């Protein structure tokens, strides 16, 4: 490996012990930048890599709140303001019991590159809390969100840092967070959060954007490889949240057959094709479990997850596998099963869902691989479109936002493809995505001096 790259990687590992997800994300990006680093001698004296791996600012804070039994609960909140090189800090908030500094930093780091690929003026950030929304009443979620925002408000703003949703944070949470922000600030700063409901400044098609965008990227990747299409392909999608549901919707619109979806407990396998309206009812309205699907489709099969390294959804034969739940959910064991079953393509809807060894194995076996920071960039890109509508005090139609999203995803695919070709790794869209994004970031770094 290039000596400069290797030394930055070693220093980053030494400086950030006990942060495996963060080191995984940094290693994946840095190793793929080798040909770009080798071609530029000024990166090392200007400490480009040392600066890109160190967040501009990290905030952690106490989030005390009172549950329905009157008991005081205390959670830990985070915001990692990673990079403001090309725009205000931008990235989602995750509420999940697994949230810790390593996960926040890996997500923030990935977000810098994803946002640069979008071609829009947004920097990189991530935040969240180890709060578990599961099983909490609406009132508990509201009190928690109000307490979270009572600290977060001082660090964000429409031109400073613009949070949005992620795991455990959807329209309900964004609504409570926005209400509290507005109350504290005594002003209507619509562009301070994205993923808002349409009734008070949200964008049409933001809810659908990540899942739709993933399928637009998949469409372009298939087209570029022997002019293939989604029509008639079998698809399996892990997760059943925001990203998974709308990836399913768009895949079905393109004539694919989605046969499986999952949650953290297990997966539903419906050979007749997933009944999406029922899945939306269970997940978006009832906040239930995928297992509830059996109540109307007795012939579908439910497979419980016993070992996360061998999740049942990846044992199902499929042409296209879309991991849309969480990090490291697709292991080497699962990748081997997908390949043995003849998988054609894997598209990452979640952030870093495929383990490093699994990516390597898929690529070695000629599986087309759509990397998260490119393939799931439709969500944050549409957030940027929401911000611009808020600034203009204007709304675009659903069709207009969707057409912009489609163009953005098509361009992102082209950037990945071209960068991979230029740097001698044609067809490796993961390396292409990192290289194309890094080139955007490096230009801005050089222009702005040592900051
Ligand atoms: P949701 O909260 O809407 O859904 C998350 C889904 O993933 C649920 O089905 C959940 O199951 C499952 N899941 C979460 N954690 C785990 C786990 N540890 N093990 C197994 N399953 C799990 O989140 P989103 O759909 O918004 O996010 C999904 C992924 O997409 C995340 O990686 C997120 O970072 C990424 N992403 C989201 C974007 C967005 O706009 N929302 C944009 C780009 C990426 P259960 O109910 O059992 O927890
Ligand atoms: O990971 C992601 O890109 C998101 N959760 C969406 C971020 C955003 O600001 O819309």
Overall pLDDT confidence: 98
Bound molecules: NADPH dihydro-nicotinamide-adenine-dinucleotide phosphate, (2Z)-2-iminopentanedioic acid
CATH topology of the largest domain: Rossmann fold
Q: In this structure, how is the largest beta sheet organized?
A: 7 strands, mixed
In sequence order, what are the helices and strands, one letter per element?
HHHHEEEHEHEHHEHEEHEEHEHEHHHH
Oligomer: single chain
Reading off the top of the CATH hierarchy, the class of the largest domain is best stated as Alpha Beta
Number of strands: 12
Number of helices: 16
Low-confidence stretches: none
Rg result: 21 Å
- CATH-derived architecture of the largest domain: 3-Layer(aba) Sandwich
As a percent range, the share of helical residues equals 40-55%
Strand residue content: 15-25%
Secondary structure category: alpha/beta
For the termini, the CA-CA separation is 27 Å
Element layout with pairings:
Blueprint: H1 3-15, H2 20-32, H3 34-38, H4 48-53, E1 57-66, E2 72-83, E3 89-95, H5 101-117, E4 124-129, H6 138-152, E5 161-164, H7 171-185, H8 206-224, E6 234-238, H9 242-253, E7 257-262, E8 266-269, H10 276-285, E9 301-304, E10 320-323, H11 332-340, E11 345-347, H12 356-364, E12 368-370, H13 372-375, H14 378-392, H15 398-422, H16 429-448
Parallel strand pairs: 3-4, 3-5, 6-7, 6-10, 10-11, 11-12
Antiparallel strand pairs: 1-2, 2-4, 7-8, 8-9
The structure holds NADPH dihydro-nicotinamide-adenine-dinucleotide phosphate and (2Z)-2-iminopentanedioic acid.
Residues 90-92, 114, 164, 166, 194, 351, 379-380, 383 line the site of (2Z)-2-iminopentanedioic acid.
